[in-house]
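Running low. Any example?
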Amino acid sequence: AILVPKMSGLNVVGSSLKYRNLLVVIKQTAFEEYSQLKLRGQAPKALRWKRLEQRYKAHKKCVNDLLGVLRKQEVGFSCVNRVELDRQHLADIDLLVAVGGDGTVLSAAHFLDHGTIPLLGVNSDPNVSVEDTKTTKKVDERRSHGALCMCTAQNLNESLPKILFGESEDDLTNRTRIRCKVKSTFSETRLVPALNDLLISNPSPAAVSRFRMGYLEEMEPSDKPKKQMYGTVTRFAGIPYDVTRSLNVWSSGMWVSTSTGSSAAMAGAGGQKMDFNSTDLQYLIREHMMENANEDVAADVNNQMLADGEKLHIRWNSQRGRIFIDGSHLTHNLELGDEILIDNNAPPLPMFIPKSRARSTN
């Protein structure tokens, strides 16, 4: 029999575990990374070692507290470092727990392609603690905001058992993700689904990103393109599409985000904060240099929504390009002539999200 501790506000008498086999993904802290560089004489001289060590200790305490809760509830689990996570670790698990911050959550989400395993984020070292709200002392601004984390180090002992026993299923929501396909001369690649956003740009931030943007409309084999000048027929997975509403763009690249990521880089770049429950996507052209061409360009072309069923098409016209998936760690290189399909048809990801955010409009 499973021994269940008495907990205030949680009625688990006679309850059974909903999640019995967990994979705990643990981030490697900056203190650990820089300590390895220090041994090789490569650590930056300006590092604040005491601050990094404090964050390391806070993170490790949270990890130990989490594992203590799992052992107390007799939950089966295994642990893996974030940088060592592989798809083989996902066999026979029914919940993935990412311990660190938003970056750890995003990295873990990239391995959940099919959207069949729920994801729980735990912020191990939040940027605002209970003590910080009562004082005016300085805090480490580099700590994670934890927008994608359901639990924190402060509420772990109370919130985690509720999740394990199925008491928090109302907080489990399906998050829309971005599907992105890249077609090159001899290959077609489906990138991992993006939970937050994509950045499509030249690898150099000082270089111009040239591309032609339009929308894809599925065609019958006997159909002709609606516009002969730029209505080139293209194919993805063997399906013919007409490229419509085509526009030539010289810019600093383009952001594409989900509603989940609309309050992050998209908002910082001047985009719109979306309703958190929206399934639409949003794109934003960065520093668009409008051409004096014969094309009619609407005033709001730089920032628009991509609704269900709409497929964005990009033909890359620069010598080099790169797609950044949920940050800088995961990328895909582009070459001149590559074509990109973007829509919201990636499998949604079940995630535990606090009700306060899931019900709000950012």
